[in-house]
Every structure is written in C-alpha cells, then in structure tokens.
Amino acid sequence: MSLRAALTALVLAGAPAAQAATPPRGRPRTSVVHRDGKWRGRFTYSLVSGQLFEWNTDPTAVPGLFREVEKRAGIECVLEVGTMALDSRRLSLNPLIIMTGNRVFRLTDSEIRSLRAYLLGGGFIYADDCGGSDYSFRRMLRQVAPDAKLEELPAKHPIFSVFYKMEKVPKIVDLYHGPARAYGLTLNGRLAVVYTYDTDIPCAWETYPDGSYVHAIPRGKREAAFRLGVNALLFALSQHAVRGEAPEIARDAAAPATEFPGGALRTYRTKRVLPCDHIRAIAGDEDAVWFGGWTYLPGEDEGIARYDRKTGQFRLFMDAEGVLAEEINTLVVREGSVLIGADTWKFSKGLSVFEPGQRRWRSYTKQDGLPHDRVIDIQARGKDVWLACRSGLAVWDTETDAFRHVDVPGGAWRSFIVSVLATRDAVWVNNFEHVWRHVPERNAWTKVEDLTPLLRGVAASLAQDEGHVYIAPREPKGSPLVVYEKRTGSFEPFQPAIDSRIEVATAVAAHQLLPSETAPGRPARREIWIGTGKGEVIGFPEDSNGRFPLANVIRKRTGKGQVGRIYAEGPDVFAAVHPFGGVWHYGRRRRTWQQFKTRRHVPSDHILSLAVLNGALLLGTLSDGPWSFTPREERPSGGSFAGGWRNLNYELLCEGQRVVYLGDRSAIRYTTIHDILADESGAWMATNHGLVRHDPRSTPRGFEILAKPMGPIARLASGKGTIYCGLPDGGVRVFDTARKRWRPYEWKGDEPTKALAASGSTLWVATDAHLVTLVDTGRSLEERGRTGARVSSLLVDGKNLWIAGSPGIYRHAGQGPLRLETPVAAVKGAVALARYKEFLLAANGHGLWKLQCSSSPGPLAITRYNTLPHTRGHPITSMALANGRLYVGTHGGGLLAIVLTALRF
Length: 905
Hints:
There is one protein chain. The chain is mainly β. It folds into five domains: about 10-240, Rossmann fold; about 275-360, Thrombin, subunit H (Beta Barrel); about 365-450, Thrombin, subunit H (Beta Barrel), CATH 2.40.10; about 460-600, YVTN repeat-like/Quinoprotein amine dehydrogenase (Methylamine Dehydrogenase, Chain H, 7 Propeller), CATH 2.130.10; about 605-830, YVTN repeat-like/Quinoprotein amine dehydrogenase (Methylamine Dehydrogenase, Chain H, 7 Propeller). It is built from eight helices and 72 strands. It starts with 7 loop residues before the first strand and ends in a 6-residue tail after the last strand.
C-alpha cells in the first residue's frame, strides 16, 4: 500500500452525448454513449488541484483504472495536460471526482462552496480512505452537505451491478481489522457520493506505464477492485449531464504580497536516504550497496535504497512491484539484478528479482512454484539460488526457472530455516535447532555440533571468506565466534573475540582485503567484523603474520540497539542496527564513521504543532512523535545545517513505571502530536493516544501517559492547575495537574473541537459551526454563551481574545457578551496566531500576515508576506516565537525559520 503524503484527487471530464449540450469551447470532452447494453465513445479527464492538499502524490491509480475501462468497456480515455482547480467554474463539466489518501486534509471555503455546487448540479464523488483520511473526508462531507447523511449502501444497490454483478465490497488491505464497507450520500434523491472504507481499492489500480502493477496484490482481489472501479465510473457517466460553465466561484481575497528580504528565511525539510530505520537486509557489488527494511510498526515508507560507492549518494526505489520495505528480510546482488526475499504478512512476494536499469520486477510465490512464500535468506551457488524460508528450504534453478523443495533432517517446526550460507564445497543450513553442513552433490547432511564441541544449537550469523566459514553461536560455548578452516576441516575458537570480551555475536562478516583497500601502514590481509547485542561494531584486521592483534581493533558503539547485519566489501563497512538504528558506515581509507537514517536534520515535513520549552523548540509531527530543536547548537555541514535536532521518542512512563514501546501501536514514536502546551513543569501534548506529559527534568526522553490513554485529543488550553482537552469528536475534558487525574465533570459537545483558549476560569471552544463560552466553576463546565461562527484559531493575549474566523480576525476585550460583528483585519481563515510586541501574527492559505495592534477599535494595519514559494503550497499549521525567530510549521512543507528583525518590527 502506498503511503501517500495527503489527499489525491483526480477528475474525469465527460458525460453521455445523448443528454449533452455542447461544451462551451473546444472539441467535445465526451462522446460516450450506452446503447443496446454496450458502451462506446471517448472522454477526457483532468487532475484536480487544491490549495491545502497535495493533489498528485500518486498519479498511477486512476490511469490504471482507465486502462481497464478501455479494455473492458470499450471507452477511450484521454488524459488532459494540465490541472483543474477544485474551486474552478470548469469543475461543473466533470462527471466524476476520485479521491484517495492517508493523511489529514482540509478544503478552503471557496473549495467547499464549489464542491457543494458541483454535487447539487449533478456531480459524483468516489472516495476511498487508504488508512488516514477517514476523519477528513467525513468532515468534508459535513461541510459540503450538512443536511445529508452518509449511510452504508445495500448489496442490491445499482452501483454494484451497472456493469459487473458484485455481492460485496472487496477487501484489499486490512486497515482497521474489520469488513470492507461502502457508504453513500444521497442528494435530491440521487446518489452523489460513494465512499469505500477499510479496504484501499485504488491500491489495486496502481499501474506502471508499461502495464505492470505497482503492488503485489492477489489476482482475485485485484480483479474485484477493478470491477468496482469500472462500476463506479460507468454509474457516474450514466446519471450525469454536461452543463455550461458555472459562474466563477468567489475566491478568498488577499492583500498584495511582500517578499521576504534575502537571508531572512530558512527552510528545514526532510532529506530521505533510507526507506526506513529498521534495516534487515544489506547487499552490494563493486558499484553500489543496497538496503532493505523490515518495519513492524506503522508509518514507514516503502521501497529499497541504493548507495552509490563512487558518489556517496542515495537513491530510493519506492512502491516496488512485489516488495514492500516493511517486510524485506534479505538482499543479494547477482549478475546485475537484486534478489529480494520478503515475508508475506501483507502483499510482499516471497522472492522478487529487480532489474534497476529497466525498473522491472519479477516475483514468485507458491502460485509460481515457490515451495515456501516467506523467504528469510538467499544465497547463490552457481546456477542455483538457495532460499531459507520460514517453512523450509528451497532451491531455485535459474536456468530452468524451476523451484524444488529440499528436506532438512528433523522436520516439523525445525523446518523454520533461519539462514543459509553457500560455499563451493557445501551449503551451511541454519534452522531453529542445529547448524547443518550439507553437500548437495552427495545429499549428505551433517550436524556441525557432531563435528565440534564449540557449537551447540542454532547460529546467530554465518559468514565466509576464501578459506574460512565463520559461525556466531546464538548461545556461545566458550567462544562468541567459531572459525571453520576449509583446507583442514577443523573448527577453532576465534580468540581475539574472547580477548575483546565479546559475550554474544549477533552478526559477523568477513572480507579478503586487496592491497589497494588497506590503510597506510596497516598491511592487513583480511578483516573479520563482529556485531553485538549491545550495539557494538568491532573490526579485527589481520596483520602480515596472520594474527589479529588487539592494538589494531576497530571498535564503535552505535547505541542501545542490536547489530543485526554487517556488510564488509571493498573500502566500506555497513552495519545495520535495529530497531530503528539505521545504518552505520565505516570508510576504511579515512577511518571515519557516519550514521545513515531515514531522515536527516528534520524529523518530518508534516509538523502539526509547535511550542517553546526552556529555549528549545518542540515539534509535534504527524505519526513521528515529538522532536526538539535547539538553534544555538545548529552548525553548517555540507551546504546544509545540521545539529540541534533531538528525537524525544521511545521512553514512556505509565503509572510511575517506565515502559519502552517498540512493537506496540501506541508507541510514542508513531504518535501524532496534534497540539503542544508548554509551561514551567514541562510540555503537555495532545496526541492520538491521549494526554501525554514530557518533563525534561526527570529524564531527557521521559514521557508520561496521564491517567491511562483515553483516546485522541485535538486541542489544549491551560487554566489555573488545569489542562483543558478538546476532543476531536466534540466536547472538553478537564485534567487536574496537581492530582494527575481527570476531574469528574466535562462539557459534551456534538461538533469536533477546532480551537481552544482559556483565561482564568473562562474557556472558549471553537467547533465546526459555533464559538462557545464556558465557565469552570470547579464542579462543572457551564455554558454561558454560543455564537454561530466558523472559527479556525484562538489566542488569548492579556485582556484580549483574538478570534480568527472565515470572514477575518476579531478582537474581544473580555468584557461583556461575545459578539462577532466587524472584523479588525480581513485575514480570512487564519489557522495560527501569535503575538510579538505590539504586533499580531497570523497565517492562512495566502501566507503570513503582520497586523499592527492599537488600542482603537478600528481596523488594523496589515502586511502580507508571501510564504507559498517556501512552503511549496503546503498549508501552515502552527507558529512559535523563540530566539529572535518566528518558526512556522507546515503540513507537508517542513519548518520555516524567519528572522523577526527582517519583518521590520
């Protein structure tokens, strides 16, 4: 499943010619007819662009669907160059909009008005939540059609039989562990919206231009997904009529923009080098090294990474056919191709072959003759490729493209093959009970523990060079590394590992060095590298006497993780540290270490909240937990700025006990931080798992789940000894900070909370349609007033309450009833507010606004700064002031740092 950054919306333009008036200009956009049970004709489709969401993050799904429409229904589909704005008057020409995404998104007021007119005029939407846009899509429908209700479609609805007869919605991806469902929204007696949930139908449509599929989905499921897509498209065409262009939708007005002075603004964005930080597979050749990941936590991206040895640059290959990065176990480079072994928990094929030059994939599962789907290790030996699998051992004959199963002595659960090592004279097979030495030519099997008392049971790692096989026992008997001498057939302990006090070796690699690869003054002939469970990577160079003196040992402590893989070839050594430790690289020539992680410098481009604590900037991200940034520690490095960034993840306190979350979905690492509130005691965080408190004085990475998780929280506000928590589904709960428990009263609202502000015992709650005034009596939250308004942000500043609404910004002096009559600034829909000296700062879809405050009740003088080139069109979510800079968080565009003196305060 593709992890899209935001909403994807694609539009088909066209309608049945039998009902049509001629479109206003150019050749007809459609000539589709349905006669005698057959479809004929052509239509043109366009991509739709919006202001606050990425519209083209996944352009392969709908073209893949239309390729099938052409083949099955005989309708020609034409892709129109360029895009169509969601609030364009030309939207009325289009019979269908297809939306899919797994990120939070939001529409502007003009886009909501346009979409409402479009649906009431006969338009049709097909939408699918692929794992994260459900809340946003339902909110969008409430805004567009507040009087209509989204209801589940019955199995006998005509949309399930317009072309193909279908009995149910196919389940493509198990997103929420329930049945796939289809919902519909009816307007004026006509089905105007179809929404499929907990399935990700477009995932099965994604197709490369050469016709190959992006994702490895079972054939039956893919066929069902295409059938549902064809039905939805033809249903839309059958009940839509072309109309002339509608009047131009009134767009939000904006003042003339002022550009930022040179050097006043710096942008921090993510630079990806690895598909994920949990690397379990490394392989390479003379030109490149490849990395594959296995991430059992949600939120990581798909693909494999290629490291160019000459340039030191990375390239990501994303959305690979047959393989997802979260399930890769092993990689092998063979004759220019990359062999990939993967688990099959979701979509991954057991064995895949990738040809990088042609971006072509071949995949094999049991349907293709592969005896076992879940491939753990791969080794090449001549024309044969040996596959260690979870349920047995297999061999792939590359000449005949045939597979065969190989029986390993023991059977039953012992057939779980952990790893395999192929040498010229034998194949070493490592299962859950023994290490076996197998000679395929004689079909002879020998337990290694029968050959040497140094080894008992399974090995943690196997490696070889020209004359030796290295075995790292999982439970050492006197030596953490056993060396097999091929020439003599003897086993010896590796004494330098014992002398270095290595208890257990979790990974081992060996390399025969060439003269050009040795460092000056170090005439080593081979190197043995050992990784440990304590995160150490240790290299043992051999001297000219065939010894491994401890004085020459290379030792690196990488962190708290375990070294799972080591690759040592040529001038480079790579060690994968898991979980989440990325890859450590050692260059033999310069003898330097560096760490490769998924993200450099910036944790995430999706920053939802900002706050300042003890001079450091706290960032709340989408699905990547909290981070901190200390500008004074920032330093230039390689043309960009590094340093100062700290990951505040991993450690949680629950009921006073420390808990480390690594495999649980409630891990702080994969938590979305919707809002952050900093005070003298630390930081309070509104997350999708509840209220979390961070106190840097107790432990730098200490987080406490308060009163157990209570579900998602959207917004926070602070009172005296109180934290008010606004719930995304509506309502406010009250947390007592002194007693660390929830108070027995709350305010129940029926609309999602969008903003909160508090002053003393007074609390203001902004929902989708109202601004509510509450008073905390200590025993209850009493509602004292309610004003109909669409409010996007609130800020309490001394005696003033600043209110950002759809018409503009209002000021309430805090005395008397709350009235929103005349805005003091025509800044529409500001999503973030901040106060600096006598200025109010506001941000909306048009950029950053500076408002000069005054005591008079009249309009404020305003200046607009153009942020769109710097945010790449992504919406601004939050602002914070620290160290003479204004920090602006964006949803997809990273973090902006603006020097305040450059704004002419």
